[in-house]
Amino acid sequence: MFVSAIGVSNVTPEQIREYAKYGTIAVVQQKYSLLDRTCEQNGILDVCADTGNLKTFLFTALMGAFVILVRVSGGVKGFVNYLTEKSQRVKSKRMAMLIGP
Fold it and tell me: How does pLDDT run across 27-59, given as a tens digit for each residue?
C-alpha cells in the first residue's frame, strides 16, 4: 500500500517529529481558539514552521469565536436576536461587509 502523505490531529511536537521520520506530514490539525491557545505555548507552531512544507490547520478557531459571540450576546436567544437585528439593516452585500459585528 502506498501513502503519499500523513495527516495528524491533536499531537505533541515530539509526536510530529517522530511521524515525520516515516513520511511527509501534510497537515497537522490542532485545537485553537481565543480560549485555548495551547499550540502557541507548547511548540506545535514552531515544529510546523521547521518541517518545511507542513501545513497547520487550526480547528475550532471559528467555533471558539462563535462561542464567545453567543456568550457576549446573552446566550443563543440573544445571538439570534442580534443576527436578526443586523440582517434587517442590510440592504446590499457591500453594506453587510461594512456593518460587521
Answer: 888 877 767 788 888 888 888 877 665 666 666
Q: Is the pTM of this model over 0.70?
A: no
What angle do the packed helices 61-72 and 75-89 form, to 10 degrees?
A: 90
| Beta-strand relationship, 6-9 and 55-59 | unpaired
Residues contacting residue 64 through CB under 8 Å, at least 6 positions apart: 32, 33, 34, 35, 36
Residue 27 CB-density burial (10 A; 0-12 exposed, 13-18 middle, 19+ buried): middle
Amino acid identity, residue 88? Answer: Q
